[in-house]
Amino acid sequence: MQPDRHDIELFVNGKSCRHAVESRMLLTDFLRHELMLAGTHVGCEHGVCGACTILLDGAPVRSCLMFAVQANGHELFTVEGLASAAAELNPLQQAMHEHHGLQCGYCTPGILMTMTAFLRENPEPSETELREALSGNLCRCTGYQNIIDAMLKAAHLLRAGAP
Amino acid sequence: MKPAPFKYIAVSSLDQALALKAQYGDEARFLAGGQSLIPAMNFRLARPAVLIDINGLTQLAGLDRSDAQHLRVGALTRYRAMERDGEFLHDCPLFADALPHIAHPQIRSRGTIGGNLAHADPASELPAIALAMQARMGIRSIRGEREIAACDFFVGPLTTDLKPDEMLVGTAFPAARPRSGASFMEVARRRGDFALAGVAAVVSLDDEDRCSQIRLALCGVGDTPLDASHAASSLIGQRCTDKAIETVAGNVRGTIAPSGNIHASADYQRHVAGVLVRRAIAMAHKRIAHAA
Fold this sequence. Notes:
heterodimer; A: 163 residues; alpha+beta; Ubiquitin-like (UB roll); DNA polymerase, domain 1; 2 domains; 5-stranded mixed sheet; B: 292 residues; Uridine Diphospho-n-acetylenolpyruvylglucosamine Reductase, domain 2; Uridine Diphospho-n-acetylenolpyruvylglucosamine Reductase, domain 3; Enolase-like, domain 1; 3 domains; 4-stranded antiparallel sheet; 11 helices; 14 strands; 34% helix
């Protein structure tokens, strides 16, 4: 069987890109192996762990539960797009750093993307709402408390007008 | 952990989608949200030869309120859209209760009601809600269209009445009766996990505050979503007292035969189902009083 290939054109972190992809290529693998954006992590590959969370047209999605070909014509946002420069941290990243919201860091990109979308819609979340919003991202290091602390701080920074 | 090869076709019209499904039959699957299908493909539990991507068929997404008797929900309507539609959540409290239990925000961004119902997972919330609300399923194929009751749609685990050339295009939920209230509750091991047991209850009262109709459906405790309304018939004509509700819970416990799983024994599932029946009926009843 000949590989079933399709030309796709999409926007990733504000940049347009064109690629030919095999239909069975998962969006996660496309980001990591074709675009070399390895910040999106692969955990479970069946939609449970949340490590591969990215934004699709602004909404958080599991990139392991989409085919790259489905992203044709869409706008994606990955962890690489958060800070304006490589050496900088955006308010969410800065807060995670300050509150020790990560240890091994494997879940961190997914959590940052989930929280980016969540805080846009809920700039003043309660701790309960934050925990609910985080329910789809597994972290085996932190016990979550430091992530919650970090995101409460990030929400505060964003409300105060941090970039 | 990677899908087997398949042919991908993104369709631009419903007619094209139906023609392809008629051509390929069971070899092809419709790809909507993909939140159940793609994990199954990643595990190679599903190996469709052809995926017909219907995400471009925007006419299948959204709510149609033009008929006062029914709310029609297009098959491609995503959980995320339903969660953010205050009028819908107000009109359909079972959905308002159930949507937060459906997986996680990221899954709800993509998952669709039609995909959920056609997947017919017996532990899933919406099939039980469709049963409780006596929804009608709109089905299309190149042979024409038909509509069947939810109770005839779910025929087995992950199995519906859909024929190989058919698509579920929408679901019609009857408008709430006057003096009625509804509640959905479930227990899962963790937030977003499959339900160990879930209960959808709709209670209607007559002018003397006696129960005139009760609809009861359960998920997670059988091969299909279960319509347990018959086990609640003792409540008809009665006031919804704690004792009368407990009788119903006992009847339901005696009716269901859950199989047990890695997270819960069959006895525990039966117990939880009984507790949820009691609480869901009480909450549905309480909501009538609050609405009055």
